[in-house]
């Protein structure tokens, strides 16, 4: 192990003051380029890295943004994060990812943690369980720059980047109606919130506009441990001719049930998924999906956040709506 | 906005010394349970949260572990993270996720950052691009507890949690040989490293043990922007009867090419994937995969790390090998 290098030892070795070293390492305009380079080269050679806690206390900036997402292993959030990172990299910021695992309790703990100033700004998509927003309100009161994306707290005034959820639900339903479906089911998580409400409202409205009454049996709720039995019995009893899958992880159980019960897609049941993912193109039949501008959502949310970080005063809350589009494949044809 | 609460205001309000407040908040044995509860209740009521940077400087612990993974949107790493979190939660630690995006440069930046003590320990799986380990060696020299998992630096002595990669490659190949395959291709990323080497060595050995010579054309390399053209031409020229897919994201292009070129799986080409994921069960044909103990790998890596954090002296490096198993499905039948 090397002996410990600090600002004092660097100053002594190079015959300059500690304040010169400190200013040089902080890229101060008071120090000449030549001196800066000499000090940086020495610091690098001897593996000196400033303590981030100490330097954060001085600058009050952590140069870090926190991203709260409900889960990993999901193509949508993976693409959003790539978009966020592409913007953060240019600004010289680190991106830290916090997982709520769809848990309201975990989300509260994470937000509580943020109150103490560990990050300079927050990008957040809510957990499925979250239906109350006290923890979000508390965070906003602290004045930490925050932008919500995709799953946002509908009752809170804040900057948000969303897709046109109501329209999506409406157009998806219209797509199935245009294909001749008359009895459309809607497959969703038991805990659902904000954006799925909007999509479901679009679904309701599209049916209402076609004088079709929505029966409770058309909403098929799945528990977090998705069990195929509830889907099987709902499909058997409902005799649906169309179905909207509202979450990526519900596609596998649906295809499993249809295969086992010999329900042929699209002949007997036309299926549309609110989530797009690469394997949708090789399923049998290939799956009609809605393609969300996930990378762009990450970019936009991060850019909006940096506007807040750079100019915390006098910014109005922006709600930016991005457009998603239906990618028609075999599962809704014929 | 509330007025700022700090240790001084709490002390004044409750008529105790600031040192009593500080000790109570740090759960010191010097303070009575009753006083602790009174102080905690007050702190909570007025939304006091200690500055983590300041308290980290005092305790020299951030109560945070950093997890470096190459990508999100992958079922394997998603399950590993769940395993890590289940252990960290019990220990009262935060888990922060750092993404290398398979980039060697990004990985170097992240590890450099860690040198300054932002986290108490590191769990890490290497980027595909990483073939040199100077940045890892530098980190190890600093004495920060570190455990590698899945993709590990083969030439570095460190604690590692891995699967039996060589055996996996060997058994997967044997599985295809037993099904009658004679000319087996191996689909992989151009940048591959450590663990894939071991798996590929197992593949080579299994062929050698059956007196089959491995031709260079049997290794089909894909660029990071996977293009179907190179897979198509390799399959057309190679006339393979078996194929091993070495990464989850290569399954979609392979199935796309086979569909387009009317190569029927498993009749003409038997396919086995080194990665298991839910949709493997609904592909046509369903895909034979290797199921890795991903959650268990996360648990084991985290437990090993906490042993190091709790007792930094005198620990030997452990290499723990977990077992994976072949899940046979339709793609290798017949």
Q: Any overview of this molecule?
A:
The structure is a homodimer of 334-residue chains. With 334 residues, chain A is an alpha/beta fold. Chain A is built from twelve helices and twelve strands. Helices cover 42% and strands 16% of the residues of chain A. In chain A, strands 2-1-3-4-5-11 form a six-stranded parallel sheet, sandwiched between helices. Chain A has a six-stranded mixed sheet with strand order 7-6-8-9-10-12, with helices on both faces. The first copy, chain A, is elongated and about 85 Å long. The relative contact order of chain A is 0.12.
The secondary-structure class of chain A comes to alpha/beta
CATH topology title of the largest domain in chain A: Rossmann fold
Look at the structure and give the CATH class of the largest domain in chain A. Alpha Beta
Strand content of chain A: 15-25%
Oligomer: homodimer
Counting DSSP E segments of at least 2 residues, the number of strands of chain A comes to 12
- What is the first-to-last residue Cα distance of chain A? 70 Å
Low-pLDDT segments of chain A: 53-58
Q: How would you sum up the global shape of chain A?
A: elongated
Largest sheet of chain A: 6 strands, parallel
Q: In CATH, what is the homologous superfamily of the largest domain in chain A?
A: Response regulator
Structural domain count of chain A: 3
Largest interface: A-B, 52 and 52 residues
Q: List the helices and strands of chain A in order.
A: HHHHEHEHEHEEHEHEHEHEEHEE
**Percentage of helical residues of chain A?**
40-55%
Second rung of CATH, namely the architecture of the largest domain in chain A: 3-Layer(aba) Sandwich
Radius of gyration of chain A, whole Å: 25 Å
Number of helices of chain A: 12
């Amino acid at each position: 192990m090397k002996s410990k290098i600090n600002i004092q030892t660097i100053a002594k070795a190079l015959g300059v003051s500690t304040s010169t070293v400190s200013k040089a390492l902080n890229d101060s305009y008071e120090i000449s380029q030549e001196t800066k380079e000499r000090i940086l080269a020495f610091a690098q050679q001897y593996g000196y890295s400033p303590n981030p806690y100490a330097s954060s206390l001085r600058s009050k900036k952590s140069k870090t943004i926190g991203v709260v997402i409900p889960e990993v292993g999901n193509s949508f959030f993976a693409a959003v994060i790539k978009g966020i990172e592409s913007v953060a990299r240019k600004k010289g910021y680190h991106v830290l990812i916090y997982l709520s695992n769809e848990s309201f309790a975990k989300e509260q703990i994470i937000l509580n943690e943020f109150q103490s100033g560990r990050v300079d700004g927050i990008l957040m998509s809510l957990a499925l369980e979250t239906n109350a927003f006290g923890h979000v309100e508390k965070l906003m009161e602290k004045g930490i720059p925050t932008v919500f994306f995709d799953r946002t707290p509908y009752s809170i005034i804040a900057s948000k980047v969303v897709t046109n959820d109501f329209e999506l639900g409406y157009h998806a339903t219209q797509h199935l109606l245009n294909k001749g479906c008359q009895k459309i089911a809607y497959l969703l998580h038991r805990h659902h919130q904000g954006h799925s409400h909007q999509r479901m409202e679009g679904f309701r409205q599209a049916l209402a506009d076609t004088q079709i009454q929505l029966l409770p049996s058309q909403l098929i709720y799945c528990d977090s441990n998705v069990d195929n039995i509830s889907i099987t019995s709902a499909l058997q009893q409902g005799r649906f001719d169309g179905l909207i899958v509202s979450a990526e992880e519900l596609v596998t159980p649906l295809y499993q049930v249809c295969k086992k019960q010999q329900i042929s897609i699209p002949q007997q049941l036309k299926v549309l998924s609110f989530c797009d993912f690469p394997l949708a193109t090789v399923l049998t039949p290939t799956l009609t999906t809605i393609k969300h501008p996930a990378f762009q959502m990450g970019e936009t949310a991060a850019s909006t956040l940096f506007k807040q970080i750079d100019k915390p005063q006098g910014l109005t809350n922006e709600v930016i709506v991005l457009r998603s589009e239906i990618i028609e494949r075999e599962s809704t044809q014929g």
